[in-house]
Amino acid sequence: MLQKVSHRKSYKVAVAGCGYVGLSNAALLSKFNSVTVADISADRIELVNNGFSPISDCDLERFLDQGHSLSATTDLASAFSDAEFIIIATPTNYDQQTNFFDTSSVLSVAKLATAVNPNATLVIRSTIPVGFTENLKKQLSYPNILFVPEFLREGCALHDNLNPSRIVIGGSTGTEIEFARLLQDAANSRDIEVLFMGSTEAEATKLFSNTYLAMRVAFFNELDSFALSRHLDPRSIIDGVCYDPRIGQHYNNPSFGYGGYCLPKDTKQLLANYSEVPQNLIQAIVRSNSTRKDFIAECILKTNPGTVGIYRLAMKKNSDNFRSSSIQGIMKRIKARGVEVVVYEPNLDEAKFYNSSVIKDINTFKAMADLIVTNRMTDELLDIKGKVFTRDLFGSD
Q1: Residue 262 annotated as catalytic
Q2: Residue 345 is part of a domain; what is its CATH number?
């Protein structure tokens, strides 16, 4: 653990990427440093400069609304030119064709950053394949690169930055201790474990962490599938299992599957990194998510519904991210069997989603649907609880 220092140097920091990772990092570090956030989206930059958050995160929204010390620009080169640390937090979507993350945005930003500012430390916070940082150093002939994984939840990104479970710093550049202190100083707690390791080990730490979480989701989902198939009470079984302190009563609420921006792509990327390593478990974790969605869809179809209502498309509560949400997998499966589907999603501007009508009025939606499918129960549906299908046993994520 790093010792708290009595002096605090202020640095110039540039952050590339205005998503939940980049913007929460920018907000965190702006407490004691001069921070510029840069993004190619003019709409996002305009929102930030006007005090609005482009993503759903109550702490970020409050931070921006109350006035902030961030500057935001679409001119990446200008933002990078005099920065001492350049944080790369651009998206790395999983490419189904190559079975690897698409790291082109990280590479593009790194090339620009090293061209306009050859003295800066690059800090990659995007999720990347194992071995990427070392290859990037060789490709750019630029050794001053760290990989610092983030362990953030969508909708709580700034909160998790302020209250980190640990800080992992990957790489040795001579500036790794100072960057760790930047994160530590801005956090609420002083008792944060700081772990220094190689960049490749840090990359593996990120992927294995998320794959473990996916495995835990998959385990309790398969427990729930077993209980439903045998007409057992899944909550009793889960309680009996989780009172063992080695297992714990957390991350154990059944769902339609793990989803969102991180877990689906990170598990697939880790599996791809196992191409020459014997394994069974990682493959099973990836496959289990599809199996669970198949099972849930069959459970819904057995009720012979006329019109199925899909309540909200977001990955989880307090998130505006629809990407890879498990409920979409359920929706596609039951539509493929000819069932009519309507969607309640007030955050969608479009009138249709996958050729299903999008309903903005909750009462109209309730009246139209014979069965309403929701990944998590909500007070808004309590008055029609009898026609709600959910696997939410504990009222939590």
Answers
A1: yes
A2: 3.40.50.720
In this prediction the pTM is 0.92
* Structural domain includes residue 139: yes
Do 185 and 237 lie in a common domain? no
Catalytic position from the list 58, 242, 262, 299: 262
Residues 85 and 227 placed together within one structural domain of the fold = no
Residue 191, classified by CB atoms within 10 Å of its CB into exposed (0-12), middle (13-18) or buried (19+), is exposed
pLDDT (tens digit per residue) in 300-348: 999 999 999 999 998 666 665 676 789 999 999 999 999 999 999 998 8
Find out whether 373 and 327 touch, Cβ atoms under 8 Å. yes
Decide if 202 is inside a domain.
no
**pLDDT tens digits for 116-158?**
999 999 999 999 999 999 999 999 999 999 999 999 988 899 9
> Does residue 137 sit in the same domain as residue 278?
no
- Of the residues 138, 162, 197, which one is the last residue of a structural domain? 197
Percentages (nearest 5) of helix, strand, coil residues in the chain: 45, 15, 45
E-strand ranges in the chain read 12-16, 34-38, 71-73, 85-88, 94-95, 100-101, 121-124, 145-147, 167-170, 194-197, 307-311, 340-344, 352-353, 356-359, 371-373, 388-389
User: Does residue 7 lie in a domain region?
Assistant: no
Residue of 113, 107, 108 whose CA lies nearest to 136: 107
| CA gap 59, 163 in Å, rounded | 12
pLDDT digits (tens, 9 = 90+) for 7-62: 468 999 999 999 999 999 999 999 999 999 999 999 999 999 999 999 888 899 99
**Does a structural domain hold residue 396?**
no
121 exposed, middle or buried (CB, 10 Å; 0-12, 13-18, 19+)?
Answer: buried
